[in-house]
Design goal:
Helix content: 40-55%
Structural class: alpha/beta
Largest sheet: 5 strands, mixed
Oligomer: single chain
Radius of gyration: 26 Å
Order of helices and strands: EEHEEHEHHHEEHHHHHHHEE
Strand content: 5-15%
Length: 300
């Protein structure tokens, strides 16, 4: 090899080493997560296995990158006799291993969720292709940039599909489109997940026509502002939308359903104060509060 290139090629060699002959859990490493290992085993793919980085010191094979990979292969194969490809460093000191471990990810650019989604579509993944087809059926597109007609919250789309299913995701998109007519911020992650919570909790009891009528009068800005004051995340958005949906209803939806089978407890009663700047069609004197989740008191 040209000597000019030697400084750019690590002094390593590759060996197949049985997992039982590898030593992990050095002091500088993170603790082994068996939850992560079990989840990876459920989706085991031979072609996703990376070589394990090993420092050979005093005749021992010390893993300094790849302890989870080794455990995943051991569990998937059912034996610690299973060999894995290892990239062997013969001339590292313990301190050098720790330094490599600490800094090895510093210059790695993580994949954006859109990039992962797009690659999965190219790979023919049924889930991602179904989501992509559904979004495009509404003349929308999944994008990595904020543009008209684009949805950037790829994670929210996948989350709703995984937790609630295709039909719920379809209804979430339908409700958002008929209510806010494609306004960009209506497709934020918290908005979509908030609507999904309502659809999942109330099912057919949540009427599309009423949702459109009531919520179309509320600006996205007002919903976002009030939700952030109430509670972090999509549950706050669901609460605020349910307040406006239930306003002046004789038989308002039971708030218990929003929290059933969930660890989240209902928030304290807090009034919503709207302003002419933030919500069209609402009086500045209007006040609406969330009812106690253990009663059937109407909102508003």
């Amino acid at each position: 090899m040209n000597d000019n290139f030697n400084d750019f090629v690590p002094n390593v060699h590759f060996e197949l080493i049985p997992i039982k002959d590898l030593v992990s859990n050095q002091e500088y490493q993170r603790s082994l997560s068996m939850t992560h290992v079990k989840k990876a085993v459920e989706n085991f793919d031979l072609n996703q296995i990376n070589p394990i980085k090993v420092s050979r010191r005093d005749g021992m094979n010390y893993v300094f990158n790849g302890q989870h990979t080794a455990e995943i292969v051991a569990m998937a194969s059912g034996s610690r006799e299973t060999p894995v490809w290892c990239m062997i460093y013969d001339d590292l000191e313990y301190a050098e291993e720790a330094d490599i471990f600490a800094n090895q990810m510093a210059n790695v650019k993580p994949l954006h969720p859109y990039e992962i989604f797009n690659a999965s579509c190219e790979a023919g993944s049924a889930k991602e292709l179904m989501i992509k087809g559904l979004v495009e059926s509404y003349d929308l597109m999944i994008t990595s940039k904020t543009i008209p007609g684009g949805i950037c919250a790829v994670g929210a789309l996948s989350n709703i599909f995984d937790r609630y299913g295709y039909d719920t995701l379809n209804r979430v998109l339908h409700l958002i489109i008929i209510t806010w007519e494609g306004e960009q911020k209506s497709f934020s992650g918290n908005m979509m997940n908030g609507v999904a919570r309502l659809v999942y909790a109330f099912g057919d009891e949540l009427k599309d026509e009423i949702f459109k009528e009531k919520l179309s009068e509320v600006s996205i800005k007002e919903i976002c502002r009030t939700a952030k004051e109430r509670r972090v995340g999509s549950l706050g958005y669901a609460e605020v939308m349910l307040i406006y949906y239930s306003k002046k209803m004789k038989n308002a939806p039971s708030w218990k359903k929003l929290y059933e089978n969930k660890k989240n407890k209902p928030a304290e009663v807090k009034p919503i104060e709207s302003s002419d700047d933030d919500m069209s069609g609402a009086s500045t004197n209007h006040r609406s509060s969330i009812p106690d989740a253990d009663s059937n008191t109407q909102a508003g």
